[in-house]
Amino acid sequence: MAQNGNAKVWIFDLDDTLHNASAHIFPVMNKAMTQYIMASLILDETAAHRLRQHYWRVYGATLKGLMRHHGADPHHFLNETHKLVDLPDMVLEVKRLRHMLNSLAGRKLVFTNAPRNYALRVLDILGITDCFELIFSVESTKFHAKPSVRGFQLLLKAIKVKASDCVMLEDNLAALMTAKRLGMKTIWISKTLQKPNFVDYRLTEVLALTHLKL
């Protein structure tokens, strides 16, 4: 891929960007989060499900709502909801993904709202852990999950680059809006045809990055 000026910094979201988490992982994880809320807040399943979705819509992460309004211990929540003992059978293989990543000039890192242990497990199963210089997990953001500006600022500080040097690849529009506000180039991984104006490019899958000239 042609590079203009300085080498770019490619920032990849993990779930539903580098691999398809909606197929097998998110249904199990969402159920685990609902059950966690049921147990910790003494709610029935319907109320817990509704609260989980509400916090996800408002904050971009269920955990943030639980921490802010209920004093939830983030480490305990993440550990309980991301155990996923069958994870190797749940991660769908992405052929040519490693080749595509290795062909990209510039620095590459993962920025995810998932916990570090889960992210490393997924990347290991996909066989691409060593393609990235940094895995910036929700713990790295001090639990200021995307789309929080604070999380992005902590990432930029950690990698010592300007936002304008970065390209963000992400399936979540709220996170891309923050990235764009900060000055990053934005790539939306989505099969939706219409794209909002804060999205620079839309790709149906991350492998299509090979054909994009930035």
3D architecture notes:
This protein has 214 residues and is an alpha/beta fold. The chain folds into 2 domains: 9-19 and 91-211, Rossmann fold (3-Layer(aba) Sandwich), CATH 3.40.50.1000; 25-87, DNA polymerase, domain 1 (Orthogonal Bundle), CATH 1.10.150. The protein is 43% helix and 12% strand. It is built from 9 helices and 6 strands, in the order βααααααβαβαβαββ. It has helices at residues 25-41, 45-59, 62-70, 74-81, 87-90, 97-103, 116-126, 149-159, 173-182; strands at 9-12, 107-111, 134-136, 166-170, 185-189, 201-203. The protein has a 6-stranded parallel sheet with strand order 3-2-1-4-5-6, with helices on both faces. Helix 9 links the parallel strand 4 and strand 5 (185-189). It is globular. The termini are close together.
Output mean pLDDT.
94
Which stretches are poorly predicted, pLDDT < 50 over at least 5 residues?
1-5
CATH topology of the largest domain: Rossmann fold
Strand content: 5-15%
The separation of the N and C termini measures 8 Å
Number of domains: 2
Radius of gyration of CA atoms, rounded to a whole number = 17 Å
Structural class: alpha/beta
> CATH class of the largest domain, please?
Alpha Beta
Largest β-sheet summary: 6 strands, parallel
The 3D shape can be described as globular
CATH fourth-tier homologous superfamily of the largest domain:
HAD superfamily/HAD-like
The name of the CATH architecture of the largest domain is 3-Layer(aba) Sandwich
Tally of DSSP β-strands: 6
> How many helical elements?
9
